[in-house]
């Protein structure tokens, strides 16, 4: 029996801060060097909706921010699942997740956002390399649900290092698992041999694999291939954990936003009302023009170019990277 | 385990009857007071009218699906009168791609491109209306004229014939209700109007630089299919005109009947956006939408069985005293944030920022020239099964 529960969203204060701070509710080793984390709202609220291919920003207690694809069940509104590979050559984010983060800990979360969305197609060819399986996992489930014709080619170093192989086993021979130590490199040319109308190719994994996929798809129509490259988040620019100042350009008023208040709430505290609606960074009602300073975008609306361009922010969830933001208010 | 559940309170009123459409507020109050869930015996459907439950059901797309239709008709058993909307009458995952494309083409970039032209268009329209005299019908001259001028331009459909959008939209929103006299009234012209709008959604009749063309460009990139593109354009045209017309009408009526709030807007023109949202809360141009349960859903002490239609009273939620202080007052100092007049969740109005921009442009132009605005004659409601609509709002203005 399903129970209609209050979402508590915009009706009362405090919900936005809760939505951006999630608790680790489960931690499972799913392959050698890969842990899956489940995240939930500490107060049991619904989490913002997402679509396959989406990622979240994980803001670790030490202030580092990393992006991880959501690989759980989008029909479950109360839990996010991510898979984290320990990257020995990484900058410490994945090591922190593996060595320090425990069930019960709180983490900051931005998004979800999706720049790798599943488009409608009659047929899908999925290519995953290693931890690149994570965004493809919900896509596979969705393609199957839609009754599309689909295949997954999943390569990795060793079978034991390949996450979610068990979950994929129920799809039978639609999934081809290719551990390198058993079978060498996956045969991309055979898999991507024949460009077919109405087919979309999705690939995620390390750069050499994606380069090879791109080469194998050179005779495919434009836009047939969609890839997500693992790129390190822009260096430095730590997300602030300290308070920051917001200057209202029209009145010259300066207010301080403490870590536990949203910019929207801080504005409201001093009587500056900004229209808002979802308070989760998904609807766009609370857009404010940024005249100076660097926003820490935590919304699900702006794409990467728009983020870099600056110029606006959604004050219900987004914060500041710089000491001060000047807003057109 | 079998658990006994009490039956919810019942209400025999026809929510689509003419007396309710003329003044829905007494029914809304009765439904809210009866409890969190009410059984509407006239159509054997369930009703949610309190803010908390309406909001919760709107965001719960898993249990309250839209794909069985957001009108009374249940698409599990009945064929829709037109191909179902890929946006409104669709659930994840099929809902994802059309929604994503529409959100992108109606996003911040589109608004920036439109802003200056729409402010100039609004000033020109207001100048022309005021030049004709100090008494006019705010519905026909402003609330209908402005969206019909700027929105189809932005989408990229030709000037000729665009007034057809109003009767077509009116029928579209009537058809979410029962097959009553309002639906029958629209049916004779339906084949002609449907054919007309379908022809306007084709790539070759859309201008090359509008929102419609950008939807087709998304189809070229494979973000949606070529079959989906005209239906997405149709959604824009059917959902984006009448709603804005009646949202603007509601705002103008509210300001004409609240002179203190008009003065306030004149003193602080930046309140134009807030005025529109407060009017959307206060009048809820879209009054109701149905959802269909995908499982047995417990609401309070009662259970809605799987597969049943649930009528969400957005208008009642937006005046629920459990959520809003003094909900019946139209007050620009109120923060209307969180109202469900645009819906909430994955189906929340994707064009709401466009509607706000239209309102901001028109109200700013009007406030710049008009010192006072008041009713000049009795107003006339327009009855529609889904929309809280106006037929006529005669006003008298003084310039200055």
Automatic annotation (TrEMBL), chain B:
Keyword annotations for this protein? Heme, Iron, Metal-binding, Monooxygenase, Oxidoreductase
Q: Which residues cross the membrane?
A: none
Gene3D superfamilies according to UniProt: Cytochrome P450
Highest taxon above the source species: Bacteria
What the entry lists under InterPro entries is as follows: Cyt_P450, Cyt_P450_CS, Cyt_P450_E_grp-I, Cyt_P450_sf
Instruction: State the family it belongs to.
Output: Belongs to the cytochrome P450 family.
What protein does this entry describe? Cytochrome P450
Q: Which organism is it from?
A: Pseudonocardia broussonetiae
């Amino acid at each position: 029996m399903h129970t209609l529960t209050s979402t508590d969203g915009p009706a009362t204060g405090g919900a936005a801060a809760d939505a951006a701070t999630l608790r680790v509710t489960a931690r499972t080793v799913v392959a050698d060097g890969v842990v899956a984390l489940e995240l939930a709202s500490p107060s049991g609220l619904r989490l913002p909706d997402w679509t396959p291919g989406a990622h979240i920003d994980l803001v670790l207690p030490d202030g580092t921010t990393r992006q991880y694809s959501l690989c759980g069940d989008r029909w479950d509104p109360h839990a996010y699942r991510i898979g984290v590979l320990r990257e020995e050559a990484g900058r410490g984010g994945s090591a922190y997740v593996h060595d320090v983060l425990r069930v019960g800990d709180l983490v900051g979360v931005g998004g979800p956002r999706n720049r790798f969305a599943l488009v409608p197609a009659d047929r899908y060819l999925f290519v995953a390399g290693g931890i690149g399986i994570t965004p493809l996992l919900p896509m596979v489930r969705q393609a199957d649900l839609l009754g599309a014709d689909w295949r997954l080619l999943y390569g990795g170093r060793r079978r034991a290092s390949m996450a979610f192989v068990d979950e994929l086993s129920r799809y039978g021979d639609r999934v081809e698992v290719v551990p390198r130590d058993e079978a060498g490199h996956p045969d991309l040319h055979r898999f991507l041999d024949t460009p077919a109308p109405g087919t979309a190719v999705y690939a995620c994994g390390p750069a050499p694999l994606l380069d090879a996929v791109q080469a194998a798809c050179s005779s495919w129509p434009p836009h047939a291939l969609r890839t997500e490259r693992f790129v390190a988040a822009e260096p430095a620019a730590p997300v602030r954990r300290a308070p920051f100042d917001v200057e209202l350009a029209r009145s010259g008023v300066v207010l301080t936003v403490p870590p536990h208040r949203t910019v929207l709430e801080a504005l409201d505290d001093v009587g500056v009302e900004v229209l808002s609606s979802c308070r989760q960074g998904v609807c766009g009602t609370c857009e404010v023009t940024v005249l100076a300073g660097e926003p820490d975008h935590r919304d699900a609306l702006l794409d990467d170019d728009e983020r870099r361009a600056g110029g606006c922010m959604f004050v219900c969830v987004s914060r500041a990277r710089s000491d001060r933001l000047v807003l057109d208010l | 385990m079998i658990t006994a559940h009490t039956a919810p309170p019942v209400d025999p009123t026809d929510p689509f009857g003419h007396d309710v459409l003329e003044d829905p507020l007494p029914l809304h109050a009765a439904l809210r007071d009866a409890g969190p869930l009410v059984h509407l015996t006239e159509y054997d459907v369930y009703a949610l009218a309190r803010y908390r439950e309406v909001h919760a059901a709107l965001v719960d797309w898993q249990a309250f699906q839209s794909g069985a239709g957001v009108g009374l008709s249940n698409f599990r058993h009945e064929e829709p009168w037109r191909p179902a909307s890929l946006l409104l009458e669709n659930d994840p995952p099929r809902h994802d791609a059309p929604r994503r494309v529409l959100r992108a083409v109606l996003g911040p970039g589109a608004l920036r491109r439109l802003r200056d032209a729409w402010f100039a268009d609004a000033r020109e329209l207001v100048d022309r209306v005021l030049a004709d005299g100090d008494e006019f019908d705010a519905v026909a001259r402003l609330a209908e004229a402005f969206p019909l001028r700027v929105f189809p331009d932005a989408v990229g459909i030709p000037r000729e014939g665009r007034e057809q959008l109003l009767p077509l939209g009116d029928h579209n929103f009537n058809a979410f209700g029962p097959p009553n006299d309002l639906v029958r009234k629209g049916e004779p012209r339906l084949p002609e109007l449907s054919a007309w709008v379908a022809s306007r959604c084709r790539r070759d009749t859309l201008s090359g630089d509008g929102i419609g063309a950008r939807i087709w460009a998304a189809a070229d990139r494979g973000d949606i299919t070529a079959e989906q593109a005209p239906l997405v354009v149709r959604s824009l045209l059917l959902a984006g005109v009448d709603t804005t017309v009646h949202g603007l009408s509601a705002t103008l009526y509210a300001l004409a009947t609240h002179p203190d709030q008009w003065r306030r807007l004149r003193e602080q023109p930046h309140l134009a956006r807030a005025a529109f949202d407060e009017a959307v809360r206060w009048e809820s141009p879209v009054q109701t939408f149905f959802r269909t349960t995908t499982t047995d859903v417990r609401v309070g002490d009662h259970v809605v069985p799987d597969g049943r239609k649930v009528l969400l009273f957005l208008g009642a939620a937006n005046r629920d005293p459990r959520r809003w202080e003094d909900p019946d007052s139209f007050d620009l100092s109120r923060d209307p944030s969180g109202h469900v007049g645009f819906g909430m969740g994955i189906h929340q109005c994707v064009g709401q920022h466009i509607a706000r921009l239209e309102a901001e442009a028109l109200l700013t132009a009007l406030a710049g020239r008009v010192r006072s605005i008041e009713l000049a004659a009795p107003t006339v409601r327009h009855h529609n099964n889904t929309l809280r609509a106006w037929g006529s709002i005669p006003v008298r203005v003084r310039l200055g």
